[in-house]
Structures are given as C-alpha cells and as structure tokens.
Amino acid sequence: MLNSARAVLLRNRHQTAQQANMTKTNPPEIPTPERLIELYETKHTNEAGYGGGKLYHKQLGELCASHHIGSVLDWGCGKGGVVNYLKSSGMKAQGYDPAMPEFKNKPKGRFDCVCCFDVAEHWHPDRVDEEIRDVAIHTGQLAVFVVSCRVAVHQLPDGTNCHTIVESGEWWRDRLNRVMELEGLTMEFHSYNPGRKTLYAYFLRH
After folding, report:
1. Which residues pair with 56 in a beta bridge?
2. What's the CA gap between 136 and 21, in Å, rounded?
3. Quick check: 91 and 70 in contact, CB under 8 A?
4. Do residues 70 and 89 touch, judged by C-beta distance below 8 A?
5. What is the pTM of this model?
6. Among candidates 37, 24, 50, which has minimal Cα distance to 124?
7. What is the pLDDT of residues 158-194, one digit of tens each?
8. Residue 91 near residue 72 (C-beta atoms within 8 A)
9. Cβ neighbourhood burial of 151 (10 Å; 0-12, 13-18, 19+)
C-alpha cells in the first residue's frame, strides 16, 4: 500500500514537471491584437468591478501639481476611474481605451501628461514598441508608467491570462527607456517594488 502511494506521488510530480516544462517551452498562444480588444470589451461588460482604475489617484495628482500639468490623457483608462477623479478635481482629463466603446476613439494632439497605469502588461507582445511610441507621441511634457511584472489573477473569457506580457522590471525599464528616448523623452525616475512585482517610471520631454 505504501509503495503504491509513493509510486502515485512520484508519477504526479513527474507529470507536473512535464507540464511546467511545456509551459516554458510552448507558452499558450495569445489571441490576435484585434481579438484581444474584443475579449477585453466582453470582460469589461460582464464584470462591473473590472478596470475601475481606483489606484494611484493621489500620487498622480501630486505629480501633476509638482509639474504644473494642465491636461491629462489616461492611456488604457478602462471604465474611466482616473479620468473621473481628475475631472472632479478641476483638471482637464480624457481617456483612451480601445476595449471601451465610450473611450475607443484615440485622441489627437498632445496632452501635458499621459498616464499608463497597469496597462502595458495587457498589450499584445507584437505591439509593445508601437504602443510605447504612441504614448510618447501624445505626451507634451510628462509620461507616467506603472507596469505589473507578474501573472494576473484575472483571465479573459477564452482563458487567456489578462497579463499577456510577463517580464522583469529591468526588461520593461530598458524597453520603455529605449523607445521613449527615440521620441525625445528622458527617464527621470524609475523604481521597482519586489513585493508587488511592479515597475514605476516617468519620463519628461525636454
């Protein structure tokens, strides 16, 4: 009986190791960029509490005040929590999110500040540089990024993890810096929180 139990345990461990190895060498296929937008729109519709954007309000307000920011674009705004907060504070604010019908139209021109909070990790891996460049193009003075570097708790309706990009803080720091520099913005601050596995960075246009 004991030997039989040990055999089952060893077999299960072996299968788990095989599955882990397959995940590393053959990661799940990520939907196309267009399909991702459709899946996120469905998730936003079906889950009232998803994408509310309740974090970082106070910090963003303080940062905007210190840099005399007059207008803000929330890039990947979800249901518009940050936009509503800024407007209630008397600031000119607009949101952009292709998965939200009311925010799907991409604004034209530059804003004093573009914030991108917990959004970059949701991008399609093939569109990273394009997305960063788009943020830069819309930035008049200040760009602020908060990027999660871990697997998400949430999943999309098809089972895809909501964080389609899971990379280290160093990877994101270097990627953001390289593209933003090409568009005339310099990294003024960056910090990584190992407990939250989150990168914080902001850039200024000189």
Report:
1. none
2. 38
3. yes
4. no
5. 0.84
6. 37
7. 999 999 999 999 999 999 999 999 999 999 999 999 9
8. yes
9. exposed
